[in-house]
Design brief:
about 75% helix
């Protein structure tokens, strides 16, 4: 299969994905083309909100 046919086939298959399968495919493609993916660091405000929510859950 030549490269263009392969790319067309992969594009068609990826467009049919949804949910977790789509997320995994996109992560794989990003890692393959751009290098390892690392989520952005949380801001101080986001950390504060997250800690507050964890405390609420722990306290019931």
């Amino acid at each position: 299969m030549d490269r263009n046919k392969l790319l067309a086939h992969l594009k068609k298959r990826v467009q049919q994905l949804s949910g977790e399968e789509l997320n995994l495919a996109l992560m794989f493609l990003y890692n393959w083309t751009k290098g390892p993916w690392t989520p952005a660091s949380l801001s101080d405000e986001q950390l504060s909100v997250l800690k507050k929510r964890v405390k609420e859950i722990e306290d019931g």
